[in-house]
Amino acid sequence: MPETSAGRLLTLPPTMPQHTPAGVVGNTPMLWIGEPFCAPRQGFWAKLEGHNPGGIKDRTAIYMVARATERGQLAPGAPIVESTSGTLGLGLALAGITFGHPVALVTDPGMEPLMARLLAAYGAVVHTVTEPHPTGGWQQARRDRVAELLAADPAAYCPDQYNNPDNVAAYAPLAHELIAQVGRIDTLVVAVGTGGHSAGVSRALRTFCPHLRVVGVDTIGSTIFGQPARPRIMRGLGSSIHPRNVDYGTFDEVHWVDPVQAVRTSRVLASSHYASGGWSVGAVATVARWLSRTRPATERIVAIFPDGPQRYFDTVFNDDFCAEKGLLDRPPLDVPDEIADTRERTVTRWTRCTRVVDPRALAPDAGAGAGSADVVGEARR
Length: 381
Ligand SMILES: Cc1ncc(COP(=O)(O)O)c(C=O)c1O
Known about the structure:
about 375 residues; alpha/beta; Rossmann fold; 8-stranded mixed beta sheet; 3-stranded parallel beta sheet; about 30% helix; about 15% strand; binds pyridoxal-5'-phosphate; TrpB-like_PALP_sf; pyridoxal phosphate; TrpB-like_PALP; Pyridoxal-5'-phosphate-dependent protein subunit beta
């Protein structure tokens, strides 16, 4: 099996014929996002991971399950159990069909009804927790339910996307696709949730482009980069814990994007380029567009769009939902606010910081303790 210089797998396992459902994962297209979304002679490349059967996480789901099987951690036919807000769930449903495992997914009431129905259609059993954990919020409540399901069946396996290094290694092929598609890359713009694709893609890309700048994109209210936990509307990116897969050293700067910004950007992108997505695509495209305006014109910028727009038609693209959450009340910003250090203040709208630190190394008064509340609801302003 071919490997990168870092010793990571380049291809899907060879037993995976290309004409199978899992065989069509990867080799997603690139789209140039220029005018009218960006100004004349400005723009960036978007990697359209929504062209995978489920989304970007198909790559890691197939990889984590294949590697667990190789290591003997997952027996033939044994159940797979995981906590997910959706995208990994789609990938695990695909892995379950491909490798013959029942799949149980634990989520919370914030999951879009469409996504829950999609997962059920693909054969997964969806468990929805009904109460947040008193201190650890919905994310901890989901993890507790996963622990219960694992305890009830000793054969069951949990990939643990937050801490499993396979969720980083799975993305080396994506980096190789980018190099084959655009050659040199100067700046990579990536959403951060578990940290898997930002860590895996940037690590493999730097073997080709050592000068690469990596710009991480998080949501306001997320603790990943040292902000205190606050209620979050945006799903996919962000977290209320500190996943071990986040590679803090890889980032040159971080942006926290607010939902007003993400909604407006996703909508403009959809109507101008017929390529859009939801919260994370809106956030990533917000930052990539700003970079295309402010970085030298010779710089080649690549943004990863983790999924497509379909699951967001009841939220990001629904006027009633957005009006109820106050997301249409103010115009989006053209430039981010700036802070010198994540501890400077709690950010409530699009903000940038070029000093990226691992919050686990910060003083306790940073207010970013693991397991703080993860409430899906309207952000307090
Ligand atoms: C739509 C979407 N965007 C972004 C992310 C963040 O990706 P990662 O977990 O690799 O950091 C996720 C993760 O689930 C996602 O579902």
